Amino acid sequence: MPIEFNTDPSFAIQQDSSDVLASYKALFHFPKHQGKDAIYFCGNSLGLQPKSVEGAIQIELNSWKDLAVGGYFGGPNPWLYYHELMIPSISKLIGANSDEITITNTLTVNLHLMMLSFYKPDKTRYKILMETGAFPSDQYAVETLVKHFGLNPADAIIEISPKEGKKILETKDIIDTIDQHGSSIAMVMMGGMNYYTGQFFELEKIAHATHEIGAICGFDLAHVVGNIPLQLHQWNIDFAIWCSYKYLNAGPGAVGGIYVHEKWANNTDTQRLGGWWGNDEKSRFKMEKGFHPKPNASGWNISTTPVFNMIGLKASLEIFDLAGINAIRNKSIRLTGYLEYLLTQLPKLSFEIITPTSADERGAQLSLYFKENGRAIHDKMMESGIIVDYREPGVIRVAPAPLYCSFQDVYQFYCILREHF
């Protein structure tokens, strides 16, 4: 039964008192404003630091200090297998088998590696479809990929835009475009969620339409993992990549992740760029010629595991394991719905919420589009102790991450806007 929201402060208090995740807020460090915790609605850009990270770093510092190279095989978390420690947790978040996941590199590095494995242009099938206004790094990666193969981006890249006057893409329009260009498309590579509008795309339907025309389907899930539960294996998605510094709270520039469907991951003949850490462990230390990839997604690992860049992720995933992604998602739907309701009670503040209204088509983010003075309004919010971010043209992104944001945070946000605007 849908919640009936209202503007009485007692509503937020009651919601927090019955929130099964309320205690998790105390597990994170908050930036301060005038001596108090700021209202932090920027987890879609950089998640907060779990308080457990400091101790987790000290554990690995002690292993390095006391064991030196022995830390690869000893200590609480042997470094030789450190990246594997996080795979069970990630598996629950993205709906994948353990052999389809690896933790390695960073977001766009992984995107390049995946596209080099799966993009095989020929004279007739060479185009890549992506959404107009994708995150710039994805645009740059696709642009330079097709140039790498001697192709013209203006010809090889199909960008699909919302209909005139619309801010979001309709699934039907995406599928119709795939069908229209079917025989020429080699790959569909989209963001799972548009960073600007906050729209979550129907990944399963897009993947099915892509496979119907014989192409490869991949997604950048930077804004999705840890935000919305996924079923990547069941949806038959070929590959996906993500970062861990947003909703996964792993720290700035933290290690990223790769998903490769088992039909590709378990096949050691699947093309990839090889490296020391992707070689089969049975022969890795023989130091011989000839790359023999591991028969799973870890066969795409290249360099030695960057342990100190993974500690924050490991610490954060322990919190996710305790909370459970379904409980996180359930709170997120209620919290974002409450935020949306309160924003509609501010008629003097002229903006449009361009994020879809359906909970199935969004996560924890609402994008507020201001035709005028968006930057100035953002700056005023920041001065008032509300940490959000601004994206040109005219959008303030507001993202109450459910692990550490409360209903009273959302209500206080509303009160500040009501007072100042």
Helix-strand blueprint:
Elements: H1 9-17, E1 32-33, E2 36-37, E3 39-40, H2 53-67, H3 87-94, E4 101-103, H4 107-118, E5 127-131, H5 136-148, H6 153-156, E6 157-160, H7 171-180, E7 185-191, H8 203-212, E8 216-220, E9 239-242, E10 257-260, H9 262-265, H10 281-284, H11 311-323, H12 325-343, E11 352-353, E12 366-369, H13 374-383, E13 386-387, E14 389-391, E15 395-398, H14 407-420
Parallel strand pairs: 3-13, 5-6, 5-7, 7-8, 8-9
Antiparallel strand pairs: 1-2, 4-10, 9-10, 11-12, 12-15, 14-15
What does this structure look like?
- With 421 residues, the protein is α/β, with parallel strands linked by helices.
- It has two domains: 9-44 and 325-420, Aspartate Aminotransferase, domain 1, CATH 3.90.1150; 58-319, Type I PLP-dependent aspartate aminotransferase-like (Major domain) (Aspartate Aminotransferase, domain 2), CATH 3.40.640.10.
- The protein is 34% helix and 13% strand.
- It contains 14 helices and 15 strands.
- The chain has helices spanning 9-17, 53-67, 87-94, 107-118, 136-148, 153-156, 171-180, 203-212, 262-265, 281-284, 311-323, 325-343, 374-383, 407-420; strands at residues 32-33, 36-37, 39-40, 101-103, 127-131, 157-160, 185-191, 216-220, 239-242, 257-260, 352-353, 366-369, 386-387, 389-391, 395-398.
- Strands 4-10-9-8-7-5-6 form a seven-stranded mixed β-sheet, sandwiched between helices. A four-stranded antiparallel β-sheet has the order 11-12-15-14, with helices on one face.
- Strand 1 and strand 2 (36-37) form a beta hairpin.
- 45% of the residues are buried.
- The model has no long low-confidence stretch (mean pLDDT 96).
